[in-house]
Hints:
This is Desmoplakin SH3 domain-containing protein. The chain has about 130 residues and is of the alpha+beta class.
Amino acid sequence: GEEKSVQNCERLLTDLRRRSATISPLKLRRISSTRPIAVESLCNWETDQTSLARGEKVTLKSLSDNENWDVISADGAKKTFPGVCFLIPPPDPDAIDKVELLGNELADIKKRRAALPASLKNHKSDVPKVQQS
Length: 133
């Protein structure tokens, strides 16, 4: 029964590894990053001063307030648009790190589980020696 549980955990971990690469880093939508972040436009947006086309890739410079983002276009111009216009593409490094942590924990459990029978055999062979003395 335990072997079936371990195999199920391995299967789930494999699935998590695959899916973790498709998770967008939502935390970056709320917290300013020290490094530039590539973002993609989800819609067309036009103002008197500038415009944005759907699918356009720009670099997030800063979150100027809760609603607007300062971005740098491919031609180097700084523009401000509503943050809802952008997608921060996957992967989320935190999600990948969490899956790796889970993988390490599962590997540790499997290692301890494999060492358990040998430990029990050594313990059983020590019992008769103690009783003889």
